[in-house]
């Protein structure tokens, strides 16, 4: 942000009194812009012991497989957002279960939250956002073609929980790789 959304004055970047981070502060009206992380919410949909994945038809990571997920909207709960994204990306009406994984990705200012979900029937199809939507046996998950590390982590947690016969809530953090750090 370069200009105040309230009065249009060019902002200064400084640490406001009582804060601990640099923020965009308007020198004219004193508006402080709090640029906070985005929440990505989605589901890990299961039908007859198979995982539903969507092949991305949009950037980023066009052509790679992902769980149905996306940015949470204002005035919706994380569950509502997860179910909306599942419908938008797979055409399926999932039944949302418990929160399953929460993954912080501080270097891109995002938090990814996935819910376990069941599909009452195998009713899914490609959408504007997904060129393909498929159910995968656990052994057939296309690991080399998974779009995002948060999706890989969530799938790994799920398969570990299947093996132990109990589902837990998983929390993790993904830090940039060395090559990502060199680009920044």
TrEMBL record:
PANTHER family: NUDIX HYDROLASE 23, NUDIX HYDROLASE 23, CHLOROPLASTIC. CDD domains: NUDIX_Hydrolase. This is NUDIX hydrolase. Pfam families: NUDIX (PF00293), Zn_ribbon_Nudix (PF14803). It comes from Marinomonas phaeophyticola. Residues 36-159 form the Nudix hydrolase domain. InterPro entries: NUDIX_hydrolase-like_dom_sf (IPR015797), NUDIX_hydrolase_CS (IPR020084), NUDIX_hydrolase_dom (IPR000086), Nudix_N (IPR029401). It comes from the Bacteria. GO terms for molecular function: hydrolase activity. Its cofactor is Mg(2+). Gene3D superfamilies: 2.20.70.10, Nucleoside Triphosphate Pyrophosphohydrolase. Keywords: Hydrolase.
């Amino acid at each position: 942000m370069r200009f105040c959304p309230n009065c249009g004055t060019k902002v200064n970047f400084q640490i406001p009194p009582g804060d601990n981070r640099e923020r965009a502060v308007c020198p004219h009206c004193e508006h402080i812009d709090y640029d906070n992380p985005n929440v990505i919410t989605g589901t890990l949909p299961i039908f007859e012991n198979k995982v539903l994945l969507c092949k991305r038809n949009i950037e980023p990571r066009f052509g790679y497989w992902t769980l149905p997920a996306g940015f949470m909207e204002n005035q919706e709960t994380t569950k509502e957002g997860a179910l909306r994204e599942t419908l938008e990306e797979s055409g399926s009406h999932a039944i949302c279960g418990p929160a399953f994984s929460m993954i912080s990705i501080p270097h891109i200012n995002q938090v990814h939250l996935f819910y376990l979900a069941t599909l009452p029937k195998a009713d899914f199809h490609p959408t504007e956002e997904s060129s393909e939507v498929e159910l995968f046996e656990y052994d057939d998950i296309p690991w080399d073609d998974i779009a995002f590390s948060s999706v890989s982590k969530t799938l790994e947690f799920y398969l570990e929980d299947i093996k132990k016969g109990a589902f837990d809530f998983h929390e993790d953090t993904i830090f940039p790789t060395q090559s990502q750090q060199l680009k920044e």
